[in-house]
Design goal:
This protein is mostly helical. The protein has helices spanning 24-48, 54-75, 87-106, 113-120, 123-133, 141-158, 170-189, 195-219, 223-228, 230-233, 241-267, 270-277, 279-292, 298-333. Helix content is 73%, strand content 0%.
Amino acid sequence: MANFKTPSASFDGSSLEGVPGDRPAFAAMLMIGALALLGFQDSLIKLTSDAVSLWQFQLIRSSCNLGLILLLARYYRGGFHLFPKRIWAVVLRSLFLVGAMIFFFGAIPFLTLSQIAAGLYVFPIFVAVLSKLVLGEKVGPRRVIAIMAGFSGTLLILKPGSSDFQLEALMPVAAGLCFAATIMTTRKLCREEHPVALSLGAAIAFILVSVVGLVLTTFISPASFASQWPYLFTGWHPLGLFVFGIIITCSVLNLTANIGLSKAYQSAESSWLAPFDYSYLVFATFWGIVMWGDVPDILSFAGMAIIAGAGSYVAWRERAEHDLDQVELNRVLR
């Protein structure tokens, strides 16, 4: 996690450096803590959705993130390696993350936090599919069944064909696809990168995309879109002190959580982290009930349980097959 202390404080930077080996217990604790912060952050973002646009919010929050990163680099003893070792990999990861967050936050005015979380958490299924399509990894019949079960859980929550279905409900599913690509890029291409450097790349990408979004929505956005979806298709809004304070708070929560998540995914296999990752469903549902009174119905609870079970099974099978491959490799080497 980010640790904001003065230069006179005596501590080293090993906890924030790139990770050469696995530390699963440490990664699990980081994952749960980071997701607890993100669940609270997302409940605060929903408070601002009728006062700012998505692009305005992201520009301010990402600018604050960038400032905090630079302060962290300036006052942390020993400094940070902010320039990435493979800039193209960090750029690719940042673009995937930007896509995930645009789809995720874009759904906030229209859906409950539990619906958004459930849509996002099809990402382990997407990880399995992308592993097959992109990396050529084997996906056995049991994992195919688990993937189909996870998809059925998503259908229970989205309720396509019913009067409760909203087209916006597909946005968190698209966020899950982008997030799956982010995870694979982090694990396969960015393992040796500094977590703060990864956060810096994401902050810069968010700022650039938000500026483009503000320009387009201010000068080009159709009036009908702006009136129907103001959060997505309007530009700059007058900003009150209360809303600005919420955005600053979200920036601190977001930066701390994302550094923790980057560190977690660098510290252990994604298959090991998958069950802990579903704690976000609990946090999102909790804050949705507490702050908005959004209690999921029975079908939604069942869908979330199916998604969590299917995703955890897919991750467990990936880990089991990886362990078998290692055993076979060791046998051959002997």
